Amino acid sequence: MRLRHRIGRVLFYLLLAVILVYLIFPFYWAVVSSLKSPQELFATPVLYWPEHPRWQNYVDVFTQQPFGRNLLNSTIVAGLTTLLSLFVGSTAAYALGRFRFLGKHTVFYAILSVSMFPQISVLGGMFVLIRSLGLYNTWWALVLAYMIFTLPFTIWVLTSFIREIPRELEEAAYVDGASPMQVLRIVLLPLMAPGLVTAGLLAFIQAWNEFLFALTFTIDNSARTVPVAIALFSGASQYELPWAQIMAASVIVTVPLIVLVLVFQQRLVSGLTAGAVKG
Fold first, then answer.
1. 98 and 7, same structural domain?
2. 259 to each of 9, 42, 252, how far by Cα in Å?
3. Mean pLDDT of 53-71
């Protein structure tokens, strides 16, 4: 029995090690590739760490490409998308989680069903809408498009979180003369902090990494975000792809997301598990 237990533990840790390598290796390889020279990238046998790390690749990303502008665009677009999703999502979640009205469940499931459609299926309609509003090649075009997939998830997470907050807190606020918006702003939002962090962080990551809408609704670097900018990196000629710079840019845009997840990991877990346990 003890031998079987030991074998089980060994197999468990072996499986854990395999999963860990599977998850970490792509990021490790991106870092290694970003520090190689063009010759080392295609050298055989494969170099798992360059003899002379070429940090100049990271400098070239900003000097040979308008990557600083692309980073600014991504930061503003993802930030605006997150803020608007949290504002609209918190008010919608408050209504869906607390008030009774005709068609409440229909509205809730209709909102969730929007996220089930693939992006390509709504691309044509969104393009016509954005062109008719005069938003093409602007930040607001991307913000409007991104909210199609960030808002349903935000509403779902925050609605589940609001349903777990005791109604007595709101009733006490109503007795003191608070309005519904005051109850939401003063009483509920502070208690919804884990849910807000979870929904906001995941909305930010989705908006930060989105490619198809950014490629379709932008035409130059005035509004182009980093995923599209990296895909359009060019070398000295049209036949050359600067793989080292592409990898360096990929590392640059990935590190902030990793830092955000590590900083807010506790609130992220508590927000995702809200409503999972009853009683």
1. no
2. 31, 31, 12
3. 90
Q: How many residues does the chain have?
A: 279
Q: Residue 231's Cα: distance from chain center in Å?
A: 18
pLDDT tens digits, 141-160: 999 999 998 999 899 888 88
Domain co-membership, 37 together with 110: no
Instruction: Tell me: do 25 and 105 sit in the same domain.
Output: no
Q: What is the pTM of this model?
A: 0.85
For residue 58, is it within any domain? no
8 A C-beta contact, residue 255 and residue 71: no
* 124: region left, alpha or beta (phi > 0 left; psi from -120 to 50 alpha): alpha
Domain count, the chain: 2
Residue 47 lies in a domain: no
Residue in the block written with tokens 């469940």: 105
**CB within 8 Å of 219: residues ≥ 6 apart:** 136, 137
CATH number at 98 reads 1.10.3720.10
pLDDT of 31 reads: 92
**Side-chain-facing half-sphere of 25: CA atoms under 13 Å:** 7
Same domain for 257 and 121, yes or no, is: yes
The whole domain housing 235 covers: 63-274
Over residues 192-234, the pLDDT tens digits come to 888 888 889 989 999 999 999 999 999 999 999 999 999 988 7
In tens, the pLDDT along 175-198 reads 888 888 888 888 888 888 888 888
CA distance readout (Å), 181 to 90, 95, 188, 211, 221? 11, 11, 10, 36, 40
